[in-house]
Amino acid sequence: MFLYPLIGGTLFYFAINGFANKISRFSGYRLTCNLYNSGIATLTFGSFLKGVIQIAGASSPYIVFYYVVGSLFVAAGLILMLVMVANQKRVNI
């Protein structure tokens, strides 16, 4: 459960600081970070809920939706971030 925020958050923001340090001036930066962070939070909560349900000895077919929606949010955030990085490189040339 704790690996999603640890790895997802750490690697993502180190990559932003290392490769695209001026990206925060773009208008879509906040939306991108919010999408990405919502995806990480959804994945974390889905993992937490799966653990609680397993400890209780039950099962639920709906847990997979947390992983799907969280992955979609993370992918959307990363795709928008890559578009912004590409625009930054094109503007700087």
UniProtKB/TrEMBL annotation:
Q: Which UniProt keywords apply?
A: Membrane, Transmembrane, Transmembrane helix
Q: Where are the transmembrane segments?
A: 6-23, 35-57, 63-86
Name the source's superkingdom: Bacteria
Q: What is this protein called?
A: MFS transporter
Species in which this protein is naturally found: Clostridium zeae
